[in-house]
Amino acid sequence: MSRLLLSNRFCCKCALLSALRESPASLTPLPPSRAVFTAKQSRTFVSSAFRKARYKSRIWVYGVGLGFALAVGVKYSYDSGRSSCDDQVNGAGRRDRYGRAVKASRELLERIKAEVGAPGMVVGVSVDGAQVWCEGIGYADLENRVPCTPETVMRIASISKPLTSAAAARLCEAGKLDLDLPVQHYIPEFPHKQFDGQDVVITPRMILSHLSGIRHYEKDAKKVKEDKEKAKRLIKPPVKEKEEEKSSNEKESKSSENQMSKGKGAGQSPKKKEFEHEEYYLKDNFEGVTQALDLFKDDPLIFKPGTTFLYSTHAFTLLSAVMERAAGQRFLDLMTHMFRELGMLNTVPDENDPIIYHRSRFYHYNKKGRVVNCPYVDNSYKWAGGGFLSTAGDLLLFGNALLYSFQVGNLKDARGLLPGFLKPGTAAELWAPVDRTEASWDRDGLYAQGWLVVEKLQKYGQCRKRRHYVSHTGGAVGASSVLLVLPSEEIRECQGETPVLPQGVVVTIITNMQSVGLNLTALKIAHEFDKAKSVKE
Length: 537
Known about the structure:
GO terms for molecular function: peptidase activity. Residues 220-274 are annotated as: Disordered. Residues 108-512 form the Beta-lactamase-related domain. InterPro entries: Beta-lactam-related, Beta-lactam/transpept-like, Mito_Ser_Protease_LACTB. The protein is of the alpha+beta class. It has helices at residues 2-6, 12-21, 32-81, 92-116, 160-173, 204-208, 221-235, 239-261, 289-292, 313-327, 331-342, 383-386, 392-408, 424-430, 519-534, and strands spanning 120-127, 130-141, 146-147, 154-155, 193-195, 198-200, 348-349, 363-365, 371-373, 388-390, 446-447, 452-454, 469-476, 479-487, 504-511. It folds into two domains: 2-77, no CATH class; 118-517 and 524-534, DD-peptidase/beta-lactamase superfamily (Beta-lactamase), CATH 3.40.710. 41% of the residues lie in helices and 13% in strands. A hairpin with a 2-residue loop joins strand 5 and strand 6 (198-200). Helix 2 packs antiparallel against helix 3 and helix 5 runs parallel beside helix 10 (313-327).
């Protein structure tokens, strides 16, 4: 019977009628009344059996269809989630591989957040170009209890400098900008400068590496030089003590920055007064970057151009004016076009009037050690050096675009791969350390062109092994940030297969509290994920 029901040659009703005809009961004649009753009973039984069989077949068909739909849905959900900024590890395989790294990094970040008293933070991590973790911790808005999410938009402060350097590099590749021409070639109205009675030349290349001699926020040249000498003594301790004190000095530097954010210990080091400079809190709106030059263009140089490193946000404002003239379009339009090409759709100028979805509030500590809202500021005087807003996801895109450009030129066979956003030689130049430079957030590194670069080094066997990485930190009113790129030590290439680029770990952290040192934290997180990546599946 069951075989007959499953066969396509007979329907259920015919099969049951055939079975009834062949049954012994049908051989004996029945009385008329009994025959009528039996016929009705037979029809009822056949109809019921047919309905049950048809119901079961429908369930079977629906089950197969539902299973197929679920399978397709799961596949689509996984594929579409791979590129989104989720607060979960993407994909089961990645969850298994990076779950421990996510847990350890989250615990580290929560400790740092508690230590510095930051209302909120957002972290993003990508491995080999694929985002594996993006999460918000704490609040983007304390007053309204709005939590930080991967979509939270914050001030990225001086990470604006690497963005500007990439745009300048594109202009160089297009033949529109020459880094070695005097800035007056593009901005004739910028005054010619002298140092110690001699004419000197400032070039865009010097500006990119902070060797222009143009002041930062401190106008007093004597104080700048005194502070720089103090910093040098901290950066370069006696040789015998250098290795022993490096770790402790880094902790002291980080601690002093955090105390500064809470208004403690003022006067103990130059950096503690960083946010006491009035220019941080400018409220004047400048119509264009050329107008913003009025802030510093007539001030004397602090150092002779090309001789001494002096970190300067104002110098990048001069660079933006040069780029604007070279490109023949407004600086903000130039940057917006680049952001669109990179897919950084949430990166915009830090303007007060526009409605910017998911924008965070910004905080600092007052003299009593209480968290308060930051005052209103207008950053139109420093778009290039510290005036953009962004998300963790956008910064990961930027870091991976440059890492791809840097690595694609090192392949033996790049057939089948798209070109990088920058030419390999251009990317390598951006990440090449420049002599006579330095960087405060990692004493092992030198400044390049818009980036800090730490080169690979191991002095002794079984001792500290320094990895090559690049980064930039940021500090603005009510915000701190870091973007760090840790390239893979070796690019994996399989014969006959197109290699996957980029290869390495990119980490970014943004927070709505000023004066928070984040480079060391980002480096630890990068190593955590690099270690997880190396574990065989």
